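Ticket #4471: structure export looks truncated?
Reporter: QA, pipeline team
Priority: medium

Steps to reproduce: submit the single chain below to the structure queue and open the exported record.
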Amino acid sequence: MASKVNNLTAQVRTEFGKGAARRARRDGLVPAVLYGHATDPQHLALDARAFAAVLRNDGTNAVLTLDIAGKSQLALTKSIVVHPIRRSIEHADLLVLNKGERVTVEVNIIVEGDAAPGTLVTTDSTAVEIEADALEIPENFVVSVEGAEIGTQITAADLDLPSDVTLISDGETLLVNVVEAPSEEDLEADGEGTEPMSETGEAETQEEAASEDEDSSDES
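Actual output as written to the record:
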């Protein structure tokens, strides 16, 4: 369970717009907005390395304890914007939490084990939506396909959830499907006529995505 609480100091932002957001990121900060529970949105800045370390170690459902001008506030990361090339966090939306509050979040599915020979394991859904105590959010759900035969299907309803966790996703949501592995002939047929994207085209696509993403995150 994600009961660990991560302490972060949050600076109150007084400057807004593209220029201010860029200066904040150059100074090693992540522009963020904290909102929820009918409170006025607070524009904050988090230490980029410290925030990234929390998400890397505890996931996006990690509970944060923010120090905002000497006052403590629990928060949950609602969403983040990541630069498509540098992979740095450009912006974050944070949700105000109260102790004992139940929240609805997405939790990742991890598939483990080796299915039976001659099979191919496909993942149809990589996460499910649940409701849980904000301080007791599962880090992930592990699904085992050890020895699974062709035709095996695992749905959201098959997950072994803790007693205090409620499944919000449709129970019939397909998570894992075990099918017959394709033959060499099938793979060769699929590969015919496929032309790889040129390096120039790929670079141009990445640059366009980076430009669009930077414009949208700078508005916060």
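Status: closed, not a bug. The export was complete when the record was re-opened. Leaving a note from the reviewer for reference: The first strand starts at residue 5 and ends at 12.
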